[in-house]
Amino acid sequence: MREDQTHDYADLNPDAVLSAVESTGLLSDARLLALNSYENRVYQVGIEESTPVVAPLTDDAGETLHRFGKFRFSLYPRVGGYWPELDSEEKYQRIGRLLGQLHTLGSAKTFTHRPTITIADYAEASARFLLENHFIPTDLETAYRTLFEDLLIRIQRGFQAAGSYRAIRLHGDFHRGNILWTDESVRLVDFDDCRTGPAIQDIWMLLEGDRNAMTQQLDWFLEGYRQFNNLDALQLHLIEPLRTLRMLHYSAWLAQRWDDPAFPHHFPWFNTHRYWEEQILALREQAALMDEPPLEIY
User: Can 8 be counted among the known catalytic residues?
Assistant: First the structure.
């Protein structure tokens, strides 16, 4: 993770990565593999006589955030697992129990530095950045502006219907790609997007398919979740508004990093005319979904 705003990752060659790791006192066996990552850079590095643990690795002073030259970095053990196929009641219950425990811990304290999920940040600031920096093609700009105004009304209406929910510490990006699944354990990875917000933010991305399918999945999930925590049913009004916020925020997130050479390389489809046409179509579908009644809890 860079400390400045320039794109210096070109300087992060294998020698620099291995030297950074060994600067913490660990001894590398020189095995190095670049993993799939964009905003930060993630590598798998072989360590002699290492034993995997769940927590980040610490140095002698107990620190998990290290510095090497102009870079900051952390080290994590390699932990086995795979993305789960969410295709059974047992799997949803198992993940529900895990997330129920996580949210109980998340409710106990507040973040010191992490931001909060807000309409102003995820929607208004995102649309403003895209429009002011001319990411939206000229011939689609009017359609995007008017659509955003309609979406904003519906998003605000959803949050009003949810009432005064309790905001807690969240994983923030809780989809199955961030779950390491084995027969013996379920572990979570990628807390880069952890934020404060409604509990449903960590639930809705696990729900797939049509309304009936999502209702059944939610019921299975809550059977496990309720063993450790409760979900206010009013938060179900937030599922489609939060999905819409994520879509708006994701486009702006890509745009804000577009001058990093890694982003055009990994996201060649972004910022094309076709992308924005499809984005407008998908957001129109979201507007229709936000007009429908929320899911119900059995």
Answer: no
